[in-house]
Amino acid sequence: MYTNAHTHLELSALAEVCPTGQEFGSWLQTMLARRMQLDNATLERGIHKAIEQLQQNQTTTVGDISATRLSIEPLLSSGLAGVVYLEVLGFDPTVALERLSAAQREIDTWRKRETAMKIGLSIHAPYSCAPSLFEAAARWCRAEAVPWAIHIAESPAEVAFLQQGIGSLRELNRRITPHIEWQAPQCSPIAYLERLGVLEAQPVLVHAVQVDAHDLALIAQYDCAVVHCPRSNHNLLCGRMPLEQMLAQGIRVGLGTDSLTSAQSLDMRDEISFAQQLHAYKVAPNIIEQLATQPSILG
Ligand SMILES: [Zn+2]
Fold first, then answer.
1. Domains of the chain: total
2. Is 200 an active-site residue?
3. What is the pLDDT of residues 147-186, one digit of tens each?
4. CATH number at residue 266
5. How many CB atoms lie within 10 A of CB 127?
6. How far is the CA of 151 from the centre of ligand 1 (A)?
7. Tens digits of per-residue pLDDT, 203-233?
8. Angle ∠(247,252,258) on CA atoms, nearest 5
């Protein structure tokens, strides 16, 4: 009955080795370093265990991000519905566009095997993806009617990266692609997506915590769905999504746990209960419960 609209099942094996409670940029760096230390067999065991947990916890639909591609086959044969989004990232435009072409071929192949579980694309985030990657992905997803998802407006560090070209994510980005120049667009994450023509291709916007009134108006105008992951946002010091303002604007919002590297469980009942406390006296508890049962959010 529940829709867990945002997970990274491939990260489940890192649950015990990835500390939360640190600022987003440093958490991301720790998580990436620890993921490199695990082999595929370990990641696969984590994925199978996570799928069992979802099924035991009355989750019937899932939106999963797959960077390693290891969760695709298990999800297609799991009986779960939803979308598995094949992730692409790259801040060097040449490399990024080559990866996008490769992912498009993969998606075309996997789509022939779709079950209740559909195949989509994920363009990771503004600090890890070239602007031209967003533009090309938007054109393709729109033309091919491929569901897609983006991590956006998640942390204060992401805002600093786009507004001023500074902060922990700029440092990480500079370390990974030192040869790529970055002129900060000096706008909010949501406004950045609009400038690139992304919002009109209606990606699922994952997180959308760091948003102002203008951003909310843009999300509503383009009718993009948003996925709210309150425990992850809380654990990574990202802030509180203005959920009551989103709902007042008529924005479609779903609920997700995010991965076990930033949330304590994949159980939607835990996410609901946390969200009810976080938004107490602003959003009614029964409305939050409804956000957890919306498969149409996934596009
Ligand atoms: Zn995520």
1. 1
2. no
3. 999 999 999 999 999 999 999 999 999 999 999 999 999 9
4. 3.20.20.140
5. 26
6. 6
7. 999 999 999 999 999 999 999 999 999 999 9
8. 105
